[in-house]
Structures are given as C-alpha cells and as structure tokens.
Input
Amino acid sequence: MSEHIPLSVVLATIEPWPDLANCLAVLEPQVAAVGGEIVVGDGHGAALDAATASSSERLRWVRRPGASVFELRARCAEQARGEIVAMTEDHVIVGDDWCAQVLDAFRENPGAASVTGPVLNGSTDSLMDWANFLHTFGAFYPPVNRAQDDRCPPVANVAFRRDVIGPGPIATGWLELELNPRLFGEGRCHVHDGLTVTHVQSHGFWNTMLSHFDNGRSTTGLPAAAPMRARGAWLLFKTGVGAVGGISKLTPAARASLPLMFVLSCCHAAGEAVGALAGPGRSPSRLR
Output
C-alpha cells in the first residue's frame, strides 16, 4: 500500500544553491511534522546540492535546466503525491506553522477548492521595493481585503485540493493563469488569516521594471493563460490600489511608493500588449 501524503509543497526556482536554503530551513521541519513532501523544480540544475537532496526523506528534486518557473511548477504538480498541493516561492519565508495552517484551512472549510492568506513585505529598504510588493501582493497585505475580486491569490501563498488540479499533463502557465484565477473568481478560494508568508525580494530599480514587463508579457502570451485582452496602465493601477482595501492601512513608505507603483503598471501593461501581439518570448524564463 502506498504511503499516505497529506501535503505536497511545490517550490520552483531558477537560482543555484544556496538561494533556496533560507526557505527550506523553515519549511522542511514543518513538512516532516505533517508527513508531507517538498517537490523542488530546479530550472538551474544545481538548486540543491547532493548532500541536501539525499539527506532529506521528504525532498524530491525535479531537474529541468533552462525551464521557466511556470513550467517547473507544472512538472512538479504533476509529480506531487499529496492530497493538498501547496505553492510558495524560493524567496518567501513561510510562517512557523504554515503547513499546519494549510491543512487546518481545508479541514475547516470542506467546500474550498483552494486556500490563501496574508502576505507580508520582507523588503522595505526602498520605495521601489514597496511598489514592487504592492503591485503584486497589495490585495493580500493584512488585513486582507476580502471584498475585492480583481487580484487573485499569488503563488507565493496558495494551496489547492489535488482533485481540482487533476492528474496531468499540465500545460505551462495553467496553474497560475487559468486555474487559480478561475477558482478565485468562482468564490471557491478561502482566505485563511493564519496562513501567512513573508515575501523577500529586491530587484533594484531597473530590474524591477523589467520584471513587471516580463510578468505582463507572460500573463497574456503563454498559451495556457485564460483569454484576456491587454489592459491599460491606468486600469491596472486603479484596480491595484483599490484591491489594497484602503490606503490608510499602509505605512508612510508604502503610501509614498504609489507613484512608482503606477510606473510598474505602465511596464506591466506594455508587457501585456506585447504578449497579446507576439507571445511570451523569453519573458517567462526571466521571471524568478
């Protein structure tokens, strides 16, 4: 009889070891405590070292050098054996009881197809870092704005029931750009306040703008993305600010970053337009 695995955690990275070390240090003991597994999608080829990979009974290594994070998540989800498939990112530090909170959220909400929770900002040194965070995670900055329906949960903090993913094969980008927004739009995603992660990422000024262009181009250009027209910069900015759920809850630095958030909306909108016209290009492979 096969081993029962309640939880699989999917991690996709294109960075070499030890970039993943901080994330794994917090995640591995939790996964072991609930009898789960971690499936690492390695687009670099050396995201883990051999000693780390062999020393953990709960760690599975899916190597696809050159693959984008979208492809890596798809391949890892295909191989995940858990009843619940959770996703986070290599530059994210999960809460101390994150794995238990994932399982509790589904146990307490049997009708939920997916769950998510608050995302904290672990990069606050510059206004661009705040703009980067708010553009992507503003709707899930605590307290989470449960009234908004414009921004679906980020893959930094989301988990699905295995049966809504299916056995595969999974198209590249389908999890992030079709399944996740569809479940959220249908009201089948439960927001669980105890399910908290901290996002730690700083690209610098120009690379942040490039990242949002690449994100926008991937959003409309990947074949598995749900059909969507390119949106204008003002609409992206307006819905992003609205999704936050009240500017008053932001710190002074976060409020001061809003003009830069509009700049990132322009970059994202330009990427969406290019993606809709010319496809994803190399943008998915540059995203981290």
Observations:
- The first helix runs from residue 21 to 34.
- The chain is about 45% helix and 15% strand.
- The domain at 7-286 is CATH 3.90.550.10 (Spore Coat Polysaccharide Biosynthesis Protein SpsA; Chain A).
